[in-house]
Amino acid sequence: MDATLLHDLNAERAARRACAVVTQLDGGEQRLVRETGLEGDALASEIVAALRTGRARLTEDGRSFINAYLPPARILVIGAVHISQALAPIARISGFDVRIVDPRGAFATPERFPDVPVSAAWPEIALREQPLDPYTALVAVTHDPKIDDLPLEMALRTGCFYVGALGSRKTHARRVERLLAAGLPQHRIDTIDAPIGADIGASTPAEIAVAITASVIEAFRKRRMHAERRGETQAA
To answer: What are the backbone angles phi and psi of residue 230, rounded to the nearest 5°?
Structure first.
């Protein structure tokens, strides 16, 4: 890999942008392909397949090899509650980076979350320090609109690959009204996973954490790529 390509690749990875390096096996020529630059590429469908799985692959014609480079997928949990205590280790075992944010300092402590970064800042402050992106899932579990609503709105506008919120259908209906009043379009709000998590009949915090992790994994593996997200992220 030449120095220019390596520099560009490292820049994409530092910025948490997905990309791929395509190597022609006959001659060794390499090129960097960004997720945002697939339009018109003859190998677009195969590069998308590699980016979706994060796995290297040989092209169908056997003439090129695709190395995929994805940002580490992460889960931002709004709310340092019992569900979060169960969710953090399950999500980490599943391969996700996890961060907990809750302005209630009595809950957001290293003692309650010994193995993950915890912030007692308000979400709007925490998200300035570590902005959301399409390779982040947002899980809101405080049940408090003053804490949950803004990060939910920001996640929907950013195009996070998963957005989920704890609460009953009645609670979510009120949430939808608030998000509509904030200017979000209905089709974007409809992507919120609420009630949160896979429908497995979960009732305990640990079971709900398993259900949330399952939904996050499904959303990540079936996520839409840049070209599929582009129209929506520009609309709101």
So the answer is: -55, -45
